[in-house]
Each structure stands twice: as structure tokens, then as C-alpha cells.
């Protein structure tokens, strides 16, 4: 079983995973340097967030910057409750 994201019941926010970040970037056909520029972060930070260590190895501010950049680019992050299959994921906005 693959867990794509965790949902923080206290904060009511979804924490992103490396797989979601890579998938979101692929949907937009963005390179890591393009995402780094859009999020105003370094390329090594993006690489680290997309690695096995995942976004949890980064600061909350950096994860938020990446999320905002990808959402501004047209990606929608889905929580587990938003999918018929019950899993979290990403898709393009309509």
C-alpha cells in the first residue's frame, strides 16, 4: 500500500509527499529549476523535497511556498476524502 499524503486533523491541512510534488510538477511539465524559481527557493531544496526524505525534511514555509507555486500553476491537491477511491493525489484545475 502506498500512502500519498497525510491529513493533519488538528490543523485541517494536508501534508504533501515527495510523490505528490513530483506528480504535480509533471502535470505542469515543469523542471525542478522552474519550480524553484516559481517558489523562490533553491534547486537543491526542491530536489531534497522530492527525494526519499520528502517535504518533511524541509521547513513548513518552504513546503507552503512550493504548494502555492504549484497551485498558482494550475495544480489542485486532493485529500483522501476528495477521491472516490479514498486516496490522496493531484490533478489539474479545470
Question: Any overview of this molecule?
Answer:
This protein is of the alpha+beta class. The protein has one domain (6-92): 434 Repressor (Amino-terminal Domain) (Orthogonal Bundle). It has 4 helices and 4 strands. It has a two-stranded antiparallel sheet. Strands 3-4 form a two-stranded antiparallel sheet. Strand 1 and strand 2 (13-15) form a beta hairpin. It is globular.
**Radius of gyration, whole Å:** 12 Å
Biggest sheet layout? 2 strands, antiparallel
Q: Low-confidence runs (pLDDT<50, min 5 residues)?
A: 1-13
Strand order of the largest sheet: 1-2
Broad structural category? alpha+beta
Q: How many DSSP E strands?
A: 4
What is the average per-residue confidence, as pLDDT, rounded to a whole number? 83
State the helix count.
Answer: 4
Tell me roughly what share of residues is in helical segments: 40-55%
CATH class: Mainly Alpha
CATH architecture field:
Orthogonal Bundle
Give the N-to-C terminal Cα separation.
29 Å
Order of H and E elements: EEHHHHEE
Q: Kindly report the name of the CATH homologous superfamily.
A: lambda repressor-like DNA-binding domains
What topology emerges from the helices and strands here?
Layout: E1 6-8, E2 13-15, H1 18-28, H2 32-39, H3 43-50, H4 60-73, E3 75-78, E4 89-92
Antiparallel strand pairs: 1-2, 3-4
Amino acid at each position: 500500500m502506498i500512502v500519498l499524503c497525510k491529513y493533519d486533523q488538528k490543523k485541517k491541512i494536508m501534508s504533501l509527499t515527495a510523490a505528490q510534488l513530483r506528480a504535480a510538477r509533471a502535470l505542469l511539465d515543469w523542471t525542478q529549476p522552474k519550480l524553484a524559481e516559481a517558489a523562490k527557493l533553491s534547486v537543491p531544496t526542491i530536489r531534497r523535497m522530492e527525494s526519499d526524505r520528502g517535504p518533511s525534511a524541509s521547513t513548513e514555509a518552504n513546503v507552503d511556498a512550493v504548494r502555492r507555486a504549484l497551485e498558482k500553476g494550475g495544480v489542485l491537491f486532493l485529500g483522501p476524502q476528495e477521491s472516490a477511491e479514498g486516496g490522496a493525489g493531484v490533478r489539474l484545475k479545470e
